[in-house]
Amino acid sequence: MPLDLPLRAPAADLLSRYRAEGLRRDQGFGAFFDEHLTRCAPLTVRIWSRSNAYTGTVGAVHDASRRFATGLQALGIRPGDVVTYQLSNRVETLVTLYGAALAGATLVPIVHFYGPHEVRFILEQVGARVHITAADFGSVDYRETIRVVRADIPGVEHVVLVGDGTVPGTQPFTDLVDAAPLSSLPSVDPDAPALIGYTSGTTAEPKGVVHTGNTIGAEIEQLRRYEVGASRPLLTGAPLAHAIGLTSGAVLPLVRNQPLHIIDRWEPEWVLAIMAEAELTSGSGATYFLTSLLDAPGFDAHHAELMESVGLGGSPVPGAVCDRAEGLGIRTTRCYGSTEHPTISGARNSDPPELRKYTDGGLLDGVEVRIVDDDGRDVPPGTVGEVLSRGPDLFAGYTDPALTRAAVDADGWYHTEDLGNLDERGFLTITDRKKDIIIRGGENVSAAEVETLLLRMPGVSETAVVAAPDVRLGEHACAFLSMIPGHEPPSLPAVQDHLERAGLARQKWPEELRIVTDYPRTPSGKITKYVLRDQLRREVEEPGRG
């Protein structure tokens, strides 16, 4: 049965304004896809994969999606029923995404690395009726997850298996695609849940973020007007089960009338080879996607030319990374948003370099922002405070109503828990995450401030500064550094000397240093700092682990 949630809605005056500004189309997610898939039918769809490669057309994927929608209806799926999927980037993932939307289902993507515990939590919370998955992807085996779903979640009526082979309790994906194409789209309420994205932030359980046809439609229209990045097609590496990958890989190419190019594994040297072969751009998204290409063997001037302009967001974007890219001739723009409020601000290619590189841009159409102090009072322009936002693309609520009440106030302002400032020109700069502030002996230390300076050390590719337990001070800063290949890592005294020469107060210097080759990350490439903090805490509690 359809998901029944107490969703929030914008106030009447805001709705009127959004409609007047063309930011609320009252169109379902399926109707949007049907319109754009039809228009883009001749364009290429290519999945770059060593095991599940595909080359075809948008029209062929559209036809398979319409057949899949009919197959879902044959399983009893009606508008509002929940369909979940846990798949890598492959053509069946596109067919599932488009087809479930065409059938009017509420779609719930699940990132590929979630295990049985997280998948069970999500499926039970949303009341899934159909779950679509594969037997495995690389070293990840989904058979135990499938067993748990079939044994312990009776509400899941069908588990659909993509790929070759059989797994007990599943039915083949091909059975659904063998149906006749959907003859007509079902009627769908554009204010009903259309897509639920789960975030894996600092909470014990993932949070389900509910978007409707109208909030998704507003985001798409805002991005259409925003229009930044390179003019050539983008090779997308973020998972199609994550907001960034879904938007950049499956939605925006249709809006921009461009072919779809998607890769299932982010292997930087392979990405560079594909870019050169197919004349594609890449590197947009979280900072990691850019820096991993710049650091990869084989990166050359031709790749920089292909990456004429990259849009960075989804994780902190240090100015030093932008400086490095621009020194190679790659124009950078920064943007800011979250699963809850997808794109709040963004710089444009036409903005002056200092605004493109060192701010997160101006507000997108229809978006409002307030910067407030700890008491909820608005602060003057240029003053750092918590960022509150609202707009036509703001989510309709969490799957847990208590979380919605805590995050969105009575006037519709979403409390992001990010710290930033808004200048007189209307440009927003995110300075920190509330949870990333290190409280050393009662004094606040900004992790982002320290990270920005560390990235200016020769050879440093990426860094994360987090709070480490301190018996005397409560917390102190620990710096994790990764190096550009061929560069020797610095010592802690060398790091502190660099920060002293940069003018940073001594109490803000890291008092621990870890050299790493990789970081724990979210699917979008963002470093999961809470994992690093937990690692440091366990080392103190269990001596010998580190």
Topology:
Blueprint: H1 12-20, H2 29-39, E1 44-48, E2 54-57, H3 58-74, E3 82-86, H4 91-102, E4 106-109, H5 116-126, E5 130-134, E6 136-137, E7 140-141, H6 143-152, E8 158-162, E9 171-172, H7 173-177, E10 193-199, E11 207-212, H8 213-226, E12 235-236, H9 243-255, E13 260-263, H10 268-278, H11 287-295, H12 301-306, E14 309-312, H13 319-327, E15 331-336, E16 345-346, H14 353-358, E17 362-363, E18 368-372, E19 385-390, E20 397-398, H15 401-407, E21 414-422, E22 428-433, E23 437-440, E24 443-446, H16 447-454, E25 460-470, E26 474-483, H17 492-501, E27 512-515, H18 529-541
Parallel strand pairs: 1-13, 3-4, 3-5, 5-8, 8-9, 12-13, 14-15, 26-27
Antiparallel strand pairs: 1-2, 6-7, 10-11, 11-20, 15-16, 16-17, 18-19, 19-21, 21-22, 23-24, 25-26
Helix pairs in contact: 2-4, 3-4, 5-6
Walk me through what this model shows.
The chain has 546 residues and is of the alpha/beta class. The protein contains 18 helices and 27 strands. The protein has a five-stranded parallel sheet with strand order 4-3-5-8-9, with helices on both faces. Strands 2-1-13-12 form a four-stranded mixed sheet. Strands 14-15-16-17 form a four-stranded mixed sheet. A hairpin with a 3-residue loop joins strand 25 (460-470) and strand 26. The longest helix has 17 residues, at 58-74. The termini are far apart.
